[in-house]
């Protein structure tokens, strides 16, 4: 056990980290590994691979995931900004490279091969993009002569253009929504709000009319006609699970559910462990998001407040989109469930998000000193 009187780096980290936050993230990681035993074997069988092929790979991914989560949580706010800048620059460069040299999967070029590993750069772009935009918004708030808002808009345009070119409209929508939420918290005027809402509506309409697969998914969702096999099967798995599920390994619908270990792992969890298990999982995601918002509410530094809100919002919206697709409340979209779905890039990138959140919500000694100094200044000195 680490003593409070110790002053080493690990002791300082242990007593300043939000340990409840950390445990919540580790619970999600453990739940994802547990569900991989249920969701992965059917997919491996369909591909002619050993039953536990994806389970073993998931276990391997846990090592860099946990290492990234813990390592990033040691950073100071300044180090978070610098790390985010480096990650963002590399991610954007790899996203450009993916358009020309990337592996094409289902008509999209989102992956690049680095040292024999397949990486999706856009996953790492998201947390870094949020941190850098939070810094730009905060700098504009402190120094009006700094065009931070303009730079943030330009950065959003660059990122959105690369995502649309892949194409990955789901990530484009997620990134834009988080950016808009941060811009609103930064003190945006009503003129900007209505302007951005109109621009967003126009962008959605343009995407619907320009991309055939987007139009087909929206039409299938609205009318229920066409190829709805995936979402229908996912809903069937959820219904079959009832309240308490069929039991670990006893799921039947999961054997015919495509992408059961990635996009539709939530449905597999519902079939084998029940609706109550899924409700608890949703509450865990909600707890993380609202705890992040609560930290941000108490934060006086604009950069930290905006970054924590943005990272929490991204974590929550990505979770919500995946779950809503499984429940057929949204058109089908290939988006992973954070820390639950299989995928190396996704797991490590979400660990970056979680690590940044833990780093920015740590209790800083200098913050406590400022608070004590402020309290002393408010207490009148005794008369001599």
Beta-strand residue fraction: under 5%
Number of helices: 14
**Residue windows where pLDDT falls under 50 for at least 5 positions:** 367-384
What separation lies between the terminal Cα atoms? 47 Å
* Gross geometry: globular
The assembly state of the depicted protein chains is single chain
Give a count of the beta strands, DSSP E runs of length 2 or more: 3
Structural class call reads mainly alpha
- Chain-averaged pLDDT: 85
Work out the count of structural domains: 1
Question: Numbering strands along the chain, what is their spatial order in the largest sheet?
Answer: 1-2-3
What order do the SSEs take from the amino end to the carboxyl end, as H and E?
Answer: HHHHEEEHHHHHHHHHH
Cα-based radius of gyration, to the nearest Å: 22 Å
Would you summarize the structure shown here?
The protein is 72% helix and 3% strand.
Walkthrough of the structure:
By secondary structure, this protein is mainly alpha-helical. It has one domain. It is built from 14 helices and three strands. The protein has helices at 9-16, 19-46, 53-73, 77-101, 121-142, 148-165, 169-185, 190-210, 212-223, 229-241, 265-298, 302-326, 344-360, 365-378, and strands at 103-105, 108-114, 117-119. Strands 1-2-3 form a three-stranded antiparallel β-sheet, with helices on one face.
């Amino acid at each position: 056990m680490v003593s409070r009187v110790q002053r080493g780096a690990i002791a300082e980290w242990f007593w300043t980290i939000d340990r409840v936050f950390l445990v919540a993230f580790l619970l999600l990681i453990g739940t994802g590994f547990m569900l991989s035993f249920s969701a992965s074997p059917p997919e491996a069988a369909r591909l002619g691979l050993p039953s536990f092929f994806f389970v073993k790979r998931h276990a391997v991914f846990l090592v860099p995931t946990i290492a990234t989560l813990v390592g990033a949580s040691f950073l100071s706010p300044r180090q978070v900004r610098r790390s985010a800048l480096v990650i963002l620059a590399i991610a954007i460069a790899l996203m450009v490279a993916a358009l020309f040299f990337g592996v094409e999967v289902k008509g999209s070029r989102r992956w690049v091969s680095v040292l024999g590993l397949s990486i999706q750069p856009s996953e790492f772009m998201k947390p870094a993009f949020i941190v850098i935009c939070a810094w730009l918004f905060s700098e504009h708030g402190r120094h009006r002569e700094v065009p931070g808002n303009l730079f943030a808009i330009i950065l959003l345009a660059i990122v959105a253009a690369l995502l649309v070119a892949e194409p990955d409209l789901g990530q484009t929508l997620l990134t834009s929504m988080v950016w808009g939420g941060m811009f609103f918290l930064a003190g945006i005027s009503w003129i900007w709000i209505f302007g951005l809402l109109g621009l967003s509506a126009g962008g959605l309409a343009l995407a619907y009319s320009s991309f055939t697969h987007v139009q087909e998914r929206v039409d299938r969702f609205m009318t229920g006609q066409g190829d709805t096999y995936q979402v229908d099967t996912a809903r069937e798995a959820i219904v079959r699970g009832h309240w308490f599920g069929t039991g670990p390994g006893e799921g039947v619908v999961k054997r015919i559910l495509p992408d059961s270990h990635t996009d539709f792992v939530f449905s597999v969890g519902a079939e084998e462990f029940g609706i109550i298990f899924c409700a608890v999982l949703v509450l865990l995601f909600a707890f993380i998001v609202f705890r992040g918002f609560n930290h941000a509410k108490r934060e006086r530094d604009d950069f930290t407040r905006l970054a924590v809100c943005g990272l929490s919002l991204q974590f929550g919206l990505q979770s919500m989109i995946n779950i809503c697709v499984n429940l057929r409340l949204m058109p089908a979209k290939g988006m992973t469930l954070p820390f639950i779905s299989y995928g190396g890039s996704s797991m490590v990138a979400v660990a970056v998000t979680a690590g940044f959140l833990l780093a920015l919500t740590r209790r800083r000694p200098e913050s406590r000193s400022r608070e004590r100094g402020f309290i002393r200044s408010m207490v009148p000195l005794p008369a001599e």
